[in-house]
Design goal:
By secondary structure, the protein is α+β, with helices and mostly antiparallel strands. It has 2 domains: 22-149 and 166-226, Alpha-lytic protease prodomain-like (Up-down Bundle), CATH 1.20.1510; 232-299, Cation efflux protein, cytoplasmic domain (Alpha-Beta Plaits, 2-Layer Sandwich). It is built from 11 helices and 4 strands, in the order H-H-H-H-H-H-H-H-H-H-E-E-H-E-E. The protein has helices spanning 7-14, 16-20, 24-48, 51-79, 92-121, 128-150, 153-160, 164-193, 198-225, 232-242, 277-283; strands spanning 249-257, 263-271, 290-299, 305-308. Strands 1-2-3-4 form a 4-stranded mixed beta sheet. Helix 6 runs antiparallel to helix 8 (164-193) and helix 8 (164-193) packs antiparallel against helix 9. Mean pLDDT is 77; it is low at 1-21, 152-161 and 303-309. The chain crosses the membrane at residues 30-54, 60-77, 93-114, 120-148, 169-188, 194-215.
């Protein structure tokens, strides 16, 4: 396990995520692609009168913004990788980016719901042919963005599942594709079946989808930003390792996230053996993600030994 008093190993541990996210250029490409399509869809939505297309355009705009925040977070985390200002490293840059993008998503979703409700109450004429063409274009762009973000190889893909910032960006793109599909379905039914009311209904459905996703992301990232507890399974794994000699007893244990998957732990252990914090540190070496550990050892018949490891 790393010694937190060693600045070299500290920087390596603090910036574990940064070395995994060498995909800033790919994220930027998706941002530019999504933003360009957003401008086309919003303009076309206003010109054709399609609420579903307009909702899809603004939806893509919020995702372009969120993806931009993710890209900026990667840059800031890398630039401040060795800064002593951040005691536990820059792992929470990405978490803060995800939280911020979720706030903007929530606002955009409420706006979409309001505009869709207005359009449902006060219908307008829709230029279906033009709107369908632009919606299909949006879906093609969504598919291209998914291909760009997904094309990192098996190993990178596995790591991204544990990276809240990248996962948020990827889900943004997936949601874009789903909203584009809803828009196309609404426009096709409106054109061929005369169900024009489905256009604002699909806009409302997209708004609800975004709102639910934003709330989920807010809860997840907010928990990490406020140093919420790590999952109970990790607590059990650490406790089992520390008490593996059937004599030691963990009297206090705190575990929290420093980023998407890097963990910090603070443990107090009571023992009747002449064990040091380093001995307990070795027991935790196989637990994935632990990079900052403080162990306090209380000997029952020896003096109290407190040390950071």
């Amino acid at each position: 396990m790393h010694d937190i008093n060693d600045p070299t190993t500290c920087n390596h541990a603090h910036n574990h995520e940064i070395h995994e996210h060498a995909n800033e250029s790919k994220t930027l490409r998706v941002v530019i692609l999504t933003l360009a399509t957003m401008l086309i869809e919003v303009a076309a939505g206003y010109l054709t009168g399609s609420m579903a297309l307009l909702a899809d355009g603004w939806h893509m705009g919020t995702h372009a913004f969120a993806l931009g925040i993710t890209w900026l977070a990667y840059i800031l985390a890398r630039r401040h990788a060795h800064s002593p200002v951040f005691s536990f490293g820059t792992g929470k840059f990405g978490i803060l980016a995800g939280y911020t993008s979720a706030l903007f998503l929530g606002v955009a979703a409420l706006s979409m719901l309001y505009q869709s409700a207005q359009r449902l109450l006060f219908p307008v004429t829709i230029a279906f042919n033009e709107a369908i063409v632009v919606a299909i274009l949006g879906l093609v762009v969504n598919a291209a963005s998914i291909a760009i973000m997904h094309g990192h190889g098996h190993g990178h893909g596995h790591n991204h599942q544990h990276d809240h910032s990248f996962r948020a960006a990827y889900l943004h793109v997936i949601a874009d594709a789903l909203t584009s599909i809803l828009a196309i379905a609404a426009l096709l039914t409106g054109k061929y079946l005369g169900w024009a009311f489905l256009d604002p209904v699909m806009g409302m459905l997209g708004g609800v989808l975004i709102l639910r996703w934003a709330w989920s992301l807010l809860k997840q990232t907010g928990h990490i930003l406020l140093d919420g507890k790590a999952p109970e399974a990790i607590y059990g794994e650490i406790r089992t390792a520390l008490e593996s000699d059937n004599d030691s007893r963990v009297t206090d244990l705190r575990v929290w996230y420093l980023g998407s998957h890097d963990l910090a732990a603070l443990a107090s252990v009571d023992t009747g053996q002449a064990l040091s914090p380093g001995d307990y540190r070795q027991r935790l070496e196989k637990i994935h993600g632990l990079h900052h550990i403080t162990v306090e050892v209380h000997h029952r018949d020896l003096h109290t030994n407190c040390c950071k490891a």
